[in-house]
Amino acid sequence: MLKNGPAEFGLVTRVLHWGTMLLVIAQLALGLRIADLEPGLSTLWLYGLHKTLGFAVLALILARIGWHLVSPPPPPLGPRGPAFWAARAAHWAIYALLLAIPLTGWAGSSATGIDVMIADRWTLPPLVEPSEAAEAFWFRLHDILTKLLMALVTLHMLGAFKREMEGDGTLTRMLKGRTG
Ligand code: HEM
Ligand code: HEM
């Protein structure tokens, strides 16, 4: 089944979830690596790769939001207690961060005055005027939001493992679509 059911995750949502996870983990690692580098001719390709993959994350999250308007995902399992609302809040916050992080990266990169490109091919319009102050501001925000994402995704993953070990099938449902 491609679409989500009232209590099932369809194939499209599951592929989007695990695909986004792989890209986001790669992006966090790559981002930390380039933040430690001196920009130069030999490292420029890593910046290019980080930007291209970052726009891929943005495209995936927009596709996911669009898909979930057409085919809403099932709510978290279990009663509507604190754990339910914590899971819901974490999911919403992750969505918000995955929109905000690429945009702050784009704004910071625009502020350097260098063209922002996807796959060395397509030039995107700058989001802000070039200035050192804007560059520092947007990259600082990019940095803070990525730390927040790392913390939330860690909690999200631990929550998923905890509930799976308690036997409610939360993780199985994101892997197979159904809890059993
Ligand atoms: C979901 C997507 C993204 C993730 C998870 C991500 C993650 C990160 C992380 C963890 C860092 C290191 C932060 C630090 O320690 O200072 C970083 C740096 C950076 N990111 Fe991203 N990023 C994403 C998208 C983008 C996009 C779309 C762009 C540009 C178009 C971008 C441009 C940059 C640049 C230029 C740096 C280096 C900043 C510096 O030298 O201080 N990022 N990113
Ligand atoms: C960067 C990595 C990740 C992101 C961005 C992410 C994001 C999300 C989001 C937004 C949802 C809500 C459902 C949806 O909208 O599709 C979700 C659900 C879920 N995620 Fe993740 N996730 C990540 C990593 C992981 C990892 C590592 C695991 C476990 C090993 C995991 C397990 C789950 C499970 C089991 C659900 C379903 C929860 C439920 O039934 O309510 N996720 N994830």
Strand order of the largest sheet: 1-2
β-strand percent reads under 5%
For the record, the CATH architecture stands as Up-down Bundle
What binds here, in terms of ligands, is: protoporphyrin IX containing FE
Quickly give the structural class.
mainly alpha
SS elements, strand count: 2
Using the coordinates above, name the CATH class: Mainly Alpha
Cα-based radius of gyration, to the nearest Å: 18 Å
The helicity comes to: 55-70%
Q: What distance separates the N and C termini?
A: 16 Å
The description of the largest β-sheet is: 2 strands, antiparallel
User: Considering the protein shown, what is the CATH homologous superfamily?
Assistant: Transmembrane di-heme cytochromes, Chain C
Whole-number count of domains: 1
> Whole-number average pLDDT?
97
Instruction: Encode the helix/strand succession as letters.
Output: HHHEEHH
| Global morphology | elongated
- How many separate helices? 5
Could you name the ranges where pLDDT drops below 50 across 5 or more consecutive residues? Answer: none
CATH topology-level name: Fumarate Reductase Cytochrome B subunit
